[in-house]
Specification:
The chain contains three helices and no strands.
Length: about 120
């Protein structure tokens, strides 16, 4: 009888110790969860900026390429048809410059500001 009581006492201590060791500290868990959510939000913002910059960069490259192609064609036509060549030079130059401005705006979306250093480096 005494050995059964002693065995039950030891078993109760072991079970309570196992149950106590399984408890997660709530403040540390909440802090970790907030950190993960903040990182997830930051990654989403980076992906969104990259997506927006990608479409703007593609548009800028297309417009600038078309503009400078028109400028080259205008330069080629200066000898045979000076009036058309001169007009194409102006229109192509203006279009190329507009495309370059679109490109610059796209590059600004890639890097809005210098990133904050990680917490361990501050």
């Amino acid at each position: 009888m005494l050995t059964k009581i002693f065995f039950l006492f030891i078993a109760t201590l072991l079970i309570s110790n196992l149950a106590h060791s399984q408890v997660i500290e709530r403040p540390a868990y909440d802090s970790l969860k907030r950190t993960i959510l903040a990182l997830d939000q930051e990654v989403y913002e980076v992906k969104l900026n990259l997506h927006q910059a990608q479409s703007q960069l593609k548009t800028g490259i297309f417009v600038a390429t078309m503009g400078y192609t028109i400028t080259i064609i205008g330069g080629q036509l200066l000898g045979s048809n000076p009036d058309l060549g001169k007009s194409l030079l102006y229109v192509g130059g203006a279009t190329g410059i507009a495309g370059t401005f679109v490109l610059v705006k796209g590059f600004k979306k890639l890097s809005l500001r210098a990133p904050d250093p990680p917490l361990g480096i501050r």
